[in-house]
Specification:
The chain is mainly beta and 121 residues long. It has one domain. The strands form four sheets. Strands 3-6-7 form a three-stranded mixed beta sheet, with helices on one face. The protein has a two-stranded parallel ribbon with strand order 1-4. A two-stranded parallel ribbon has the order 2-5. The longest helix is centred in the middle third of the chain and has 8 residues. The protein is globular, with a radius of gyration of 14 Å.
Length: 121
């Protein structure tokens, strides 16, 4: 992310299947909000911030000042085409996001507890 003014990034799953960064924030980026996300990479990377790699979620939180409620767990998707999660550690870890009325399966958000990825339980 660069020039993050008014970017409200919540309730997402950043799942990298091969090499790469779940999140990359350029030095000097301000005005963004990250929380209730799940970061997963087989390499253990959480993200890159200001030219430094982070593999520890607590260190990522300290340097970004963000993601206080976020996790770093493999979502265990059912398949590459079926993105239903099978990770119980993500249950009840999401938050309804203003303006998002329905989850990925077309269920109303306000009626359920959510997981990151905007999926109801």
């Amino acid at each position: 992310m660069q020039d993050g003014i008014q970017n409200n990034i919540k309730d997402n799953i950043f799942n990298i299947k091969t090499a790469g960064y779940p999140a990359w924030i350029v030095a000097g980026t301000t005005g963004f909000s990250l929380d209730y996300n799940d970061y997963y990479s087989p390499s253990g990377l959480i993200g890159r911030y200001a030219d430094t790699n982070y593999t520890n979620l607590q260190e990522w939180r300290q340097v970004t000042g963000q993601d206080g409620h976020s996790l770093a767990e493999n979502p265990f998707y059912t398949s590459v085409t079926n993105l239903a999660m099978n990770q119980v550690l993500l249950n009840n870890q999401g938050i309804p996001v203003e303006g998002i009325l329905y989850d990925i399966d077309s269920y109303p958000q306000e009626c359920y507890t959510t997981r990151p990825g905007s999926q109801r339980i």
